[in-house]
Amino acid sequence: MPYKFEYENMKMKEEDKRNRKLTDEQRQEIRELYATGKYSQRGLAKNIM
């Protein structure tokens, strides 16, 4: 197992980050829907997730 200082400052690619819950495509879709003004942030959170 590596020491903390060996991996602490390493940059990860966005697709390798495990704590991401949405893909780039999902994020873009949410932004487009919100920009129309027909959906609130809360409404999108309930329906998309």
Structural class: mainly alpha
Number of helices: 3
Biggest sheet, open or closed, and with what strands and sense? none
- Our estimate of the beta-strand percent is under 5%
Oligomer: single chain
User: So what's the overall shape?
Assistant: elongated
Strand element count: 0
Rg, Å, rounded: 16 Å
Which spans of ≥5 residues are poorly predicted at pLDDT below 50?
Answer: none
What is the H/E order?
A: HHH
Averaged pLDDT, please?
81
Instruction: Give the % helix.
Output: 40-55%
Distance between the termini: 35 Å
Compact description:
The protein has helices spanning 4-7, 24-35, 41-48.
Describe it:
- The protein is mostly helical and 49 residues long.
- It has a domain at 22-49.
- The protein contains 3 helices and no strands.
- The mean pLDDT is 81.
Task: List the main descriptive attributes of the protein structure presented here.
49 residues, 3 helices, 0% strand, mainly alpha, 49% helix
